[in-house]
Write a structure and sequence with these properties.
It contains twelve helices and ten strands. It has 359 residues and is of the alpha/beta class. The protein is elongated, with a radius of gyration of 26 Å.
């Protein structure tokens, strides 16, 4: 069932979103939540069962956890971990191995019981993978399920290595990697041809069983897919949209990753704005593109029907706004330089000579 959202500013967002100025600040908050969970479980004499992710996104979270261990004595002795995925085939000592990644970024720096670490095995014989995956699920269940699952998001919208087309009830399994996913990993492998074509991953259904799910995303490269995942329709084409169905899922973003969400990209659709020159220009151009209509033909009805009634009222009449923005854009178009070398430019739409000379 879809969540009810009574906040006008976030009404396009279909699950909770928390935004921080930088990845470092966001990562500190995530690390503190994990630390609180670990301590709470320790006080009860219970295991804290964590689902962990790899890649650039969670590295700062792991750094913060290591700091909490070394500086504040946070113990990981009661922590059990299950990693989301691993390339296949992959030797655990390989530079690109997620076993190596986790050891270097977290496990080697805290008091983890290595018997409590679980990472998909990239060295399995093909005929042993199915049994391994079933056992991976059984182990998660045996420890009482995941208390908290960390996720990143790929540009295809994948979570773990659940690529487009993955069903929402999928379990741990071997999958074929999307071409874009392999292209994004190419730099780590010295070229796309060296990137494994397969991986072992927890399924979307496995992830859903976690009692808390935190998806993290940083920088503008993730902004487009974040918008689709948070505001788009649920679709197997963007697996992260399935998180809209999870009761305890949330997105934690930096400002760059959140920049294309409606409340930041087209804020006039969800709240009153302070209409400076830059925002007026952005809104008018957006309206023109949205309606496939020339700026000079935009009407007051167009403004009112597309969240720009405040602009029309405060800065109107609409005709004057249109003329002003049209002229601003027109004045950015120049006829200099242009045409063929030594051609007569006197009849070009702009002046024949530059407006200034560089000394």
């Amino acid at each position: 069932m879809a969540r009810l959202n009574f906040l006008e500013e976030t009404r396009f967002e279909k699950l909770p979103v928390h935004i921080y100025p930088t990845p470092v600040e966001a990562s500190k908050q995530v690390a503190l939540r994990i630390a609180t969970l670990i301590k709470s479980k320790q006080q009860k004499g219970e295991k804290a069962v964590l689902g962990l992710a790899t890649g650039v996104t969670p590295i700062q979270v792991y750094r913060e956890l290591v700091c909490l261990h070394k500086e504040e004595g946070l113990s990981f002795s009661n922590v059990v971990t299950f990693n989301l995925d691993e390339y296949y085939p992959m030797h655990p000592d390989a530079e690109q191995s997620y076993v190596r990644f986790m050891n270097e970024n977290l496990f080697d720096h805290v008091d983890m019981n290595k018997q409590h670490v679980h990472i998909p095995d990239g060295t399995l014989a093909a005929e042993d993978i199915e049994a391994f995956c079933l056992n991976y699920e059984k182990k998660i269940t045996a420890f009482g399920g995941l208390d908290l699952q960390l996720l990143g998001i790929g540009r295809t919208g994948h979570i773990g290595f659940n690529e487009p087309g993955s069903p929402p009830n999928s379990g741990t399994r071997i999958v074929t990697l999307n071409d874009l996913t392999r292209s994004d990993a190419a730099k780590d492998f010295g070229g796309k041809d060296n990137v494994p074509t397969k991986a072992i991953t927890m399924g979307i259904g496995t992830i859903f069983q976690a009692r808390e799910i935190i998806l993290m995303a940083w920088n503008t490269k993730k902004a487009e897919i974040v918008k689709k995942a948070v505001e788009g329709e649920i679709s197997a084409d963007v697996p992260a949209t399935f998180l809209q169905l999870a009761e305890h899922a949330e997105f934690i973003l930096d400002e760059d990753a959140a920049s294309l969400l409606t409340r930041f990209d087209t804020p006039w659709l969800v709240k009153d704005c302070i209409w400076d020159e830059s925002l007026i220009r952005k809104a008018v151009i957006w309206l023109s593109k949205t309606l496939s209509k020339p700026i000079l033909k935009l009407t007051e009805a167009d403004y009112n029907a597309n969240g720009m009634a405040q602009l029309a009222t405060e800065k109107g009449p609409v005709y004057d706004i249109n003329i002003h923005i049209f002229n601003k854009i027109q004045h950015t178009i120049t006829g200099w330089p242009g045409g063929k070398p030594n051609a007569d430019d006197t009849q070009r739409p702009e002046r024949a000579q530059p407006a200034f000379h560089i000394a």
